[in-house]
Amino acid sequence: xxxxxxxxxxxxxxxxxxxxxxxxxxxxxxxxxxxxxxxxxxxxxxxxxxxxxxxxxxxxxxxxxxxxxxxxxxxxxxxxxxxxxxxxxxxxxxxxxxxxxxxxxxxxxxxxxxxxxxxxxxxxxxxxxxxxxxxxxxxxxxxxxxxxxxxxxxxxxxxxxxxxxxxxxxxxxxxxxxxxxxxxxxxxxxxxxxxxxxxxxxxxxxxxxxxxxxxxxxxxxxxxxxxxxxxxxxxxxxxxxxxxxxxxxxxxxxxxxxxxxxxxxxxxxxxxxxxxxxxxxxxxxxxxx
Length: 289
Description:
This protein is of the alpha+beta class. The chain folds into 3 domains: 3-62, no CATH class; 66-171, Band 7 domain (Tetrahydropterin Synthase, Chain A, 2-Layer Sandwich); 248-284, no CATH class. It has 8 helices and 9 strands. Helix 3 crosses helix 5. This is Protein HflC.
């Protein structure tokens, strides 16, 4: 075996030894050191560390805030109304040693246990509240209470801290939704019909008021026009009377001429009048001046 090959083997052994001796824990990780499966160091600080090769084992876990999305579950309110609730929780590792002992460091195991506890907590909170309270009235208070209650248990049992719990969606069961929607539709149709009836009633009132005002205005206008016409006719009659009083014979002559004009305006008309009638007074009496 050549010296070069020996040197390469030695360097390879040294490299393997160094790689199994030095390890790094990043800022976003938490770690524990195991020796023959037994924990000898918990919550290793971030940075560069040394371990015994092939004897010690280092397990690293994500120290950031994680999300567990629980499966939708069925809960009953205090009114015995069943709801389908979809929720999620934000959590992080609070105690590395407790977390590892409780879950074996498997994130999926921690999420399953936490999801079950979240659903149990929501079931207890929903069971003491009405539908209105859980949907809108006291949702923030409900989330705050369940977060505090769960943190009191999971911190000691699972080494986990719950940062926040939120309800994404609350639905009625499918067998109830159709009935509720039909009832809501009927109520809305009833409300719409009432609004239409009220609108029609107001429209009729406005139309009747407008017609009444129109009739009153027309009557007043007709009255005023008749009064003005009467005043005009009276004034005209007075003027004519004053004028004709100055020469009554001339007035009678003018009236006869107007009568002749009207009587003989149409050539097809036939007029039967006695010759000595007053109608021909001015035609028969040539001495009239």
